[in-house]
Write a structure and sequence with these properties.
Main location: cytoplasm
Distance between the termini: 23 Å
CATH topology of the largest domain: UDP-n-acetylglucosamine1-carboxyvinyl-transferase, Chain
CATH class of the largest domain: Alpha Beta
Family: Belongs to the EPSP synthase family.
CATH architecture of the largest domain: Alpha-beta prism
Low-confidence stretches: none
Subunit structure: Monomer.
Number of domains: 2
Pfam families: EPSP_synthase (PF00275)
Largest sheet: 4 strands, mixed
Mean pLDDT: 97
Number of strands: 23
Radius of gyration: 21 Å
CATH superfamily of the largest domain: Enolpyruvate transferase domain
GO biological process, one term: amino acid biosynthetic process
Bound molecules: shikimate-3-phosphate, phosphoenolpyruvate
């Protein structure tokens, strides 16, 4: 579907009872940790999006047998921490920053040579944030622009890496996870400190596989840190992946802003390091309820019931940002439909995602009539805007394509979204789901 244009227009209220595809962050990690564990890992509700398929392809190239009996079921025959083999070719992560950065950490501890690359977007995203601390651990990594850009070549020696205590300036689960994964191959305890808590799926899942991980319990005194002991024996697990809250977010906003809508989205991951979107939408006046709250495979899960409501503008910044970083494109659409102004700050990270999400959102939503002021680290959005259908571009960014599609539901006339196939990266079936909910 890559490159395809899709025409979207509002057809009426959204009604339904549905699930969204499995969580992308958790699906990646299940394949990676399953490959590094001994024995079989069975993954249910795996996300068959392009990014997670890239992760499977990379581990297959390193000799791991991975079968996919159905699109959402994956079986990994793990070979243990030392069981990966030198790939015969370049490892291609496609569009996936998570694959690129977490694998750089894993590959740093291997006794072989490997090269990682990806698409145009990946080759323009910053990699120095992981190569710099990994080099401090003794890894040999070469790459473009002094190893700050992919392709990256990792020349592993198989000798243990140096365990470090590293403070990252950016709260990022990809940086934290890359270092913790290299720490599996360290000579002691590796610690990562961050300014705010980023998503903790790595810590939760690696602990379930048998790693010894400690996280700060009193951040006001200790700050936010995660530590890992080296060379644990990881054991294969059964993992049921919750629905992706980052995908559910598009439907939470759609149902909030399209009058007379009501949706029940079942089985959504509501990990407190990921649920900022619910908190902000509720603060804006959205009607969202959580039911059937439970823990599945170490992750909190709930059903979300959302109804249309009138929204108010808000201010988003600080430690909320890592808890909703991927949801800012769709929050910008919610803000366009809210009364008053919405200010988003402390979100400069958006500029180095699959696209420069601040510039692209402002540029594309303006084509639909929106008034948005760009800041280096966010934007100010004027609410209660009358949007008009237009021809807009996703710039190959899945979250931009979906945010524009939801804006199109409340615009006058129809909107053509160019390169809408990008949605397959994280939410295959997005457009057919949207259509179904409006019938
Ligand atoms: O670790 C992960 O699975 C992810 C971490 C976040 O990136 P950063 O770590 O760069 O903030 C997020 O934006 C990305 O979609 C997935
Ligand atoms: C930023 C994202 O993913 P990644 O960094 O893995 O490409 C995303 O899914 O919005």
């Amino acid at each position: 579907m890559q490159g395809q244009d899709v025409v979207v227009k509002g057809l009426g209220p959204l009604q339904g009872d549905l699930t969204v595809p499995g969580d992308k962050s958790i699906s990646h990690r299940a394949v990676m940790f399953g490959s590094l564990a001994k024995g079989q890992t069975r993954i249910k509700n795996f996300l068959p999006g392009q990014d997670c398929l890239s992760t499977i392809a990379c581990f297959r190239k390193m000799g791991i047998a991975i079968s996919q009996p159905t699109a959402t079921e994956v079986i990994v025959q793990g070979q243990g921490l030392q069981g990966l083999q030198e790939p015969g070719d370049v490892l291609d992560v496609g569009n996936s920053g998570t694959t690129m950065r977490l694998m750089t950490g894993i590959l740093s501890g291997q006794p072989f040579f490997s090269v990682l690359t990806g698409d145009d977007s990946i080759r323009s995203r910053p990699m120095g944030r992981v190569t710099e601390p990994l080099k401090k651990m003794g890894a040999t990594i070469l790459g473009r622009q002094d190893s700050k850009k992919a392709p990256l070549a990792v020349a592993g020696t198989g000798r243990p890496l140096q365990a470090i205590d590293y403070s990252t300036p950016v709260a990022s689960a990809q940086i934290k996870s890359a270092i913790l994964l290299a720490g599996l191959y360290g000579d002691g305890i590796t610690t990562v400190r961050e300014p705010h808590r980023s998503r903790d799926h790595t810590e939760r899942m690696l602990t379930a596989f048998g790693a010894t991980i400690r996280q700060s319990t009193n951040p006001s005194v200790e700050g936010f840190f995660s530590s890992i002991e080296s060379f644990p024996t990881l054991q294969g697990q059964d993992i049921e992946v919750p629905g992706d809250i980052s995908s559910a977010a598009f439907l939470l906003v759609a149902a909030s802003i399209v009058p007379q809508s009501q949706l029940r989205i079942r089985n959504v991951g509501v990990n407190p390091t990921r649920d900022g979107i619910i908190e902000v939408l509720q603060a804006m006046g959205s009607s969202i309820q959580q039911e059937n709250e439970r823990i599945v495979a170490g992750e909190p899960v709930a059903d979300l019931i959302v109804k249309s409501a009138s929204l108010q503008g808000t201010t988003i910044g600080g430690d909320l940002i890592p808890r909703l970083i991927d949801e800012i494109p769709i929050l910008a659409v919610a803000a366009l439909c809210a009364q008053g102004k919405t200010v988003i700050r402390d979100a400069a990270e958006l500029r180095v995602k699959e696209s420069d999400r601040i510039a692209v959102l402002a540029g594309e939503l303006r084509k639909m009539g929106a008034t948005i002021e760009e800041h280096p680290d966010g934007m100010t959005i004027c609410g209660f805007q009358r949007l008009q259908g237009a021809t807009v571009e996703s710039k190959g960014d899945h979250r931009i394509a979906m945010a524009l599609a939801i804006a199109a539901l409340v615009a006058e006339g129809s909107t053509t979204i160019q390169d809408a196939g990008a949605v397959d990266v994280s939410f295959p079936g997005f457009f057919s789901t949207l259509k179904l909910l409006q019938q």
